[in-house]
What does this fold into?
Amino acid sequence: MSVTAKELARLLGLSEAAVSLALNNKPGVSTSTRMSVLNAARERGYDFTRKAVADRSRGTICFAVYKKSGAVVADTPFFAALADGISLACKRQGFDYVIRYLYEDERLDSELYALDAAGFSGLILLATEMDLASVRRFSGVRTPTVLLDSYFETLDYDCILINNIQGAFVATDYLIMKRRAQAGYLRSAYPINNFEERADGFYKAIRKNGLSSSKSVVHRLTPSQEGAYEDMRSLIAAGEELAECYFADNDIIAIGAARALKEAGLQIPRDIAIIGFDDLPMCEVFDPPLTTVHIPIAVMGETAVRRLIDRIDRGPLHPVKIEINTVLKKRKSV
It folds into this structure.
């Protein structure tokens, strides 16, 4: 019976990780350790043929991150976690993974040509900042493609996205129930599909509670922490009306605005309550910890990979829209 990598590790007194690096001829172990592992593997009948078959990649999936302005798609924990989830799902399914960044400028057409010519098995396109015209520029790309984090009614793409309406509705409904007051809205000054859907959920909850949509105080804020902070400072200084509680399009806006409110002497949640969206790690360490809408980021990435592999393996399929439900994380800001 042939020896396994785990048995080799135990036999040689090495970690399984070190044995794996040696067997796969990868850096991270010394030459002497690599030779010891390979010699022991040959002597004890390690099945290199089976390893070669197991290690053979089924192809390469490209995660293409599209940036129109970078105002929303930035180097945040959300997008880092999304990339990690896609990478892990690809590995589990036997595919290699690469990431490419695309920018809406004069080089885009040549970048799309290069992307299609690269021979990727499939493409997961992060469409957070894309509009209809942006997506249509990909119509000539022949590589099987799944759109992530946005949806376009008139285009025949599989779309995997957050259930933004559900998340915003649940958050706003909870806010109104807890405060018994008309909820205000910290709305992004930069429009994207996700934020428009969150607005739908917000106003749906307002109407469900018998309130008038026109009476909700709405502040348009820059979707960055410093931008939201500066915008909110200006509004407070100008004497703008403030609501008793707010739903924010995302955590970054919520935290930036909350900083300005606290600086003006208002206490959260005693004076003003706030709920965010995304559940970024900073929410737990903010003072007070931010109530927010949690997105199962890993599930989004895994779902996109599974659907793309279905397209790769089975050919053309009827397009689907898959929405990933959210969970309200109740903390101390309400």
Remarks:
- The chain has a mean pLDDT of 89.
- The chain has three domains: 5-55, 60-162+297-324, 164-294.
- The two ends are 62 Å apart (CA to CA).
